[in-house]
Amino acid sequence: MDLVRGPVVFEMGANLSEPRRSEDETPHAVSAPSTFTISSKEVTTSQFQTYLVASGRRSDWRDAVRKRFPVNPEGFWSYPERPQVAVSWYDAAAYCNWLSREAGVPHDQWVYPDEIGPGMKMPANYLHRTGYRLPTEAEWEVAARAGTSTAHFFGNGVALLDQYAWYLANSEGHSWPVGMLKPNPFGLFDIYGNAWEWLQDRRTKYPEGAGNATTDMEDTELAIANNVARTRRGGSWSYDKETTRSAHRGATTYFPDQRRG
């Protein structure tokens, strides 16, 4: 885990002149008030499969993957050092609770309820609990930018991208073992490319216009529903270079029950 110190106020979103920007990346000031830790690498297949075995969920999870990806589903669990994919948002939340259990975090500090699935409700103070959780969208962008304001943490161009990210142009059609390429200045590997990262937040519009900084805080809507999209970031091995920018938000159709490659 890498430490990201707060508080920090930064401009979230893409500068209006940023190459390959999207309309939903309106630049706006955000205050990220907390110091937090974040994994330096994406969760590997080995790590996630260990959790599935320990929690007694391996058979159900693999059956769900076979149903979603009937052609060669074994590929989703046969490469232990690659990032685990085909994970729903609910899977990721359950994994976080298991990590909290394994770390001895008091139960009243776990971020997610015991029963995880459609209709679950987040505790009102979930960002102030000490258990494992998914990063917020602002936290992910703070970590990805590592103090920079350019399209990528290494600059606006893409000449150096192959040194930091597995994406469509260099991946050879598959993900790669985590941590093979260079990290960003905060020590985070594969923050761009290789596998998308699920985030805690709902997919909402950014605020328009200038004004005081908004604060990264708990969502006003605490219930999780299958028809309300969540956010994911970072791009993957099968997506092109525009998804590897620090401000890129992806589509608005990433629902929590979905498994994607």
Main β-sheet description = 3 strands, mixed
Strand content: 5-15%
User: What's the overall average pLDDT, rounded?
Assistant: 96
What's the end-to-end separation, in Å?
25 Å
Radius of gyration: 18 Å
Please list the strands of the largest sheet in the order they lie side by side.
2-3-6
List the helices and strands and how they pair.
Elements: E1 2-4, E2 8-12, E3 28-32, E4 36-38, H1 45-54, H2 58-68, H3 89-102, H4 137-145, E5 197-202, E6 214-215, E7 230-233
Parallel strand pairs: 3-6
Antiparallel strand pairs: 1-4, 2-3, 5-7
Outline the structure in words.
- 17% of the residues lie in helices and 11% in strands.
- The protein is of the alpha+beta class and 261 residues long.
- Strands 2-3-6 form a three-stranded mixed beta sheet, covered by helices on one side. Strands 1-4 form a two-stranded antiparallel sheet. Strands 5-7 form a two-stranded antiparallel ribbon.
